[in-house]
Structure formats: C-alpha cells, structure tokens
Amino acid sequence: MAWPAKREFLEASARAAVWQSGLATAALLGLLASIVVLAGWLIAGTAGAVVLAGLGVVLAATGGSFGEAYVLRAVRAQPLGYGQAPLVHDLVGALSVRAGVAAPRIFLAPSWQPNAATLGRDPERATLVVTAGLLGRLDARGLAGVLAHEIAHIRHRDLALASVSGSMVSLLLGISRLGNVALLLFLPVLLLAGPKIFFGALLLVIGLPFAALMVQAAMSRQREFAADATAARLTGDPAGLAEALAEVAVERPTLLELFFGRGRPAAEGHPLRTHPPTPERVERLLRMAEVGTASGGTGSSRRPFLSFPAVHGQRVDAAARTRPGQQSAIRVPRRDESGSPGVPRRESAGSR
Could you tell me the pTM of the whole model? Predict the structure, then answer.
C-alpha cells in the first residue's frame, strides 16, 4: 500500500475509534449519573435525587483542580529540563504540534517502573509525567509511541472526563462510608423496618458504589483504546507503540494508583481494571500496522509521520537502565524480511 493510502487509513481508523469510544463513553457517563440520582432517591426520594444530582454537578465542575500538585509531590516528580533529555522534549513538541494542543510541562519521577501519565484538566496547561524506568527501557521509536498516547489523552480531554467521573464516584463512596456507619448503628431498626428498607440500604452502601467503580473503569478502558488509535495516527507507526506496550507490559500499578494507595493493579479481566488487557491493545495496533504491508509496499511506503533518523535505536541519557529481571510477559516479534510486524504471543511462566 502506498504511503498516502496508509496515512489516510490510519487517520480514518483513528476517527472511527474515537467516535466509537465517544459513544460508549457518553453512554457510560449517563449510566454513572443515573447511579448518583438513584442513590439520592434511595436516601430521600425525589428531593434527595435533586440534591445529590446538584452536588454531583458542583463536584464535577470543581473537582480535580487542585490535585495535580499533590500527585507530583506524592511521586516525587521534578521538572525535566531540555538539557537533561532533549529527545523527550523534541518528541513531545513535535507530537503536540501535530495533535493541535499546547506542549505539556514535562516532569520526571524517580521510579524504576516504566510508566507515564498526564495530569491537569485544562489541555492548555497539562502536565506529562514520565518515570526513569520508562526512559531507560525504551528507544526513540517506542518512546514516541508512548508519548503520543499520553498526548492523545490531552487531545481528547480525557483528563477532564476522568475528573468528572472521579468526582461522581467519590461522592458515592463518601455516602457509602457514612452509610456503613449508619448501618452498624441502626441495624436492628433496619431489620425491623422490613426487607425493602434493609435491602435498599445494602444497595446504597454496597451495590451502587461498586457499580459506579465498574462504570468508571469501563470508561477508562474505552479512552485507552481511543488514545492508542490517535497515537498511531500521530506517529504513523502503530507497530512502534505495540512494541513499546509489550516491552513495558509488567503487572504494576500506575502512577495514580500508587498515589491513591492501590499497591497492586487489578488482574486482567477484572471489572475494576482501568486499562484494557495489553495483548488486546497490541493486537489492535498490529492489525492497523498490517494494512501498510498487505500489498507488499516498499520501505519508503511505511515511513512514519515523525521521523528522527539520528536518534532511532538510542536510549534516553537522562534515565538509568531498567533493573535486571524486569521483563515483559508479552513479545511482539520484530518485522521479518517481508516487513510484517508479526503476531503477539504470551510467554510461558518458565520463560520469564
């Protein structure tokens, strides 16, 4: 396939993925709002539903505005200067221009875990945090894919969306904690009041908060798929992002999970997992990459949008090497002689 045709395909694929994810996200956000209203109705009928809906709107509008500084302090992130990592700044600048967003501030967290995250609700004042483990593990091609993924989150305004959903979930969790105390204090009264009142209280304290967490996690997974597709469009190299995801695919908490005290990530397939399974993400990206080689195009027909020939294969000097033994559970074979990116596979437990 000629390069212009591949570029058009990647752009069309990204638009379709963003549109599909947007519809799913809108439906899930509506479901989350309905859970909040139902919680208010269980507490005080129609008046409770109105009050809780209004409180949810206020929290969604104001929440997350002051949490960025706390997160940066929690992960001990420091500003990353251009002289420390010029490649990172060059990639972020080029990708931001292509995405049509302001270049985010870049911070470095002294963690060996390969990770990256974006912070801030305003796309014009976003912050990008990368860890020393990420910079030490990836070469320029993989790093471009990961940074493009984070900039795609900024482009899609996922930071504001996460803040809105997080505010609603926090409201429900706060009500659940108060409900737990009330349930312990007034359990005999609730039991004498009849099964409807008792089971309604259980639904409010346990069922609705867990359902809200499930909806929030499902929204996050949808946004990850959309960010992957947009990152492939920004770089023109979906296989590069696939290889980077496979390279850093170890069971680890994200930066935000560490900050909020979740020491272990949810297992793959768990309803509270915030990221899709890595093999599924890799498979989707490789399907996009295979289109460029289906017609046996030449090497020039597969060149990425962003080309940094002087730094391909180099490591970022600002970070030390990844600790020994920290290997991925997924392998993406390198391109063979025909240019095919290969098929992801799982390693056996004994081969790690």
Answer: 0.75
